[in-house]
Amino acid sequence: MTGQTGWLILAPILGVAADFMVHVILARLAAPAGPVRIQFVSIAAGFAVTLAVLAAMLVDLPVTGGDRVALSAMHLMAFACLGFILFNVVNANVSSLRIRMLKEYLARDPVPLDDKDMFLRYPAREILEGRLDRLQSGGQIEARDGRFRVSGRLVIAVGRFFAALRALLLGPGS
After folding, report:
1. Which of 29, 73, 106, 145 has the smallest C-beta neighbourhood within 10 Å, fewest atoms?
2. What pTM did the predictor assign?
3. Domain-wise residue ranges, the chain
């Protein structure tokens, strides 16, 4: 039976491949939708592919219903791990700009680059406006009464989740 279940590893691999391909396509066709929304749609597509491949492969396996559930859960977790890695690789470009700026500050050691020169290279206003435009086009914030406000239940739910996780890991009031 091990030989028959060994092919199930294709399910999360195909799922991540679908996640990647959908992300690449949407990033070119639906860029104004915002990178986070594109990532969630591509992850959902990869999850659906993983589930479909698992269903197709498990239907003829001579295993119990409990084994089907366990095998499905295991391979869906494998997809979740691989998908999380892909999600973070895509998001690394935001951090890379910050790291590049820090490297440029320190490259002139022992006399680091001063703030005036750094702001000429990376105008804070343009970076901030670009970020705000992306958040607005992605539906994560909205301008109302001269202020930016969080919009969308998903952003609020994610914020509450991380606040709860922080309280759980670091204690209340942290």
Report:
1. 145
2. 0.58
3. 4-95, 100-170
